[in-house]
Amino acid sequence: MEPVRITIFDTTLRDGEQSPGCSMNVPEKLRMAHQLDRLGVDVIEAGFPIASEGDFAAVQAIAAVIRRPIIAGLARACRPDIERAWQALKDASRPRIHVFLATSDIHLKYKLRISRQQCLEQARDAVRLAKSLCQDVEFSPEDATRTDLEFLLQIVQAVVEAGATTVNIPDTVGYSMPAEFGELIQTIRQRVPGIEKVTISAHCHNDLGLAVANSLSAVAAGARQVECTINGIGERAGNASLEEIVMAARVRPDRYVYKTEVVSEQLFPASQMLSEITGVPVQPNKAIIGRNAFAHEAGIHQDGMLKNPLTYEIMTPRSVGVPDSTLVLGKHSGRHALNLRCEQLGFQFERRELDEIYRKFVVLADKIKHVEDHHLMELIRQTHGGRRIPPAPVADLPLAIAAAAGSGRDYPQKPLSFPLPAEFSPSGLPLNPMAEHHSEQEDYLWGV
Ligand code: KIV
Ligand code: ZN
Fold this sequence. Notes:
Layout: E1 4-5, E2 7-10, H1 26-39, E3 43-47, H2 53-65, E4 70-76, H3 79-89, E5 95-102, H4 105-112, H5 116-133, E6 137-142, H6 149-162, E7 166-171, H7 178-191, E8 199-204, H8 211-220, E9 225-228, H9 242-251, E10 258-259, H10 267-278, E11 295-296, H11 299-307, E12 326-327, H12 335-344, H13 351-367, H14 373-384, H15 399-405, H16 440-445
Parallel strand pairs: 1-10, 2-3, 2-9, 3-4, 4-5, 5-6, 6-7, 7-8, 8-9, 11-12
Bound molecules: 3-methyl-2-oxobutanoic acid (KIV) and zinc ion (ZN).
């Protein structure tokens, strides 16, 4: 079956930028937009032109130089916003005006103070106006998932008749459940006349941690555009994470027969660039691009990884642009991982020699979280006087760690001496009862 093409609408520079600490200036936005272009997203929502002079300038600058993707600018459903958005976008090779208006009773009553009828007319008029300026018009009924269903269907029909080319369904407050959100998309497809002429889009926030699940559910129900951000940044708990959506479809084509034009090897560079620009770090365990996403510390996992990375990796680090897997040496590490790191540092040991180093390593790892190379070098020097052999050839190393060994890192010609923690003394360590072990099964249990 031919995979269905999904449009990736990136809103890192608009919704993402709205998250605390993530604001960017014009050159920063431009730099990020170039990376989004390299990443292969279909739409870049470059900003909200009426919001500030800076936002206007950023949208205008991006529209002028980024020519492949569609460049979108956000506007409330009123003339000044729409005209300002068009001013910023008009030189884009593929401009899109994105108009939004809240439709839930809560928003109508407390925020906008208008009736449903006024809301319907305002949405229709705004889309007509946008359409008179720009062929490509997207409409979003803000807070759609808490909007009365019959009223939402009326709004969607009105904006389709007025000329919207994309109808985006936002789960503005991250309230929906995956099955429920999928049903909503399906109902819109079944009940709105003319909906087949437009693209249905999903825009999910992550307040319950369900933004990606909801987006995938929407796609399964017929949405053909997803709105998302790098690193999942965005208002409050963020937006659906672009990297997670893209890789879910790539890793599980058996369940999600969808394709995007995203160049997955550019995901990690995009994530790093955003983090560097905003100064907002990525949580270490963040899926796909977090520091630990490809790190393996537990002995069983490291042992499996060294035998075949497929044991614990469902995608290669390189497929998302991460240089290689990282075997973190800590108290859960096994002897195989320790041995490999010793080889990478230029040392090869007999089994008994390694046992001795391993005993000391475990004691040290109990005291300090991560055993770095210099700690290991000192352990080796104190234990065996630093007998050095040439590093193992890269080709002999398992794929996942081969890149590290061949990465041009210079291993020292002779063991260096680094101070270990003051309280650590390799002599007088208790004898480990597991020191004498000879079978593969013992290797497997060691360090678990
Ligand atoms: O979350 C939201 O409702 C929005 C709209 C402007 C699309 O960001
Ligand atoms: Zn949003």
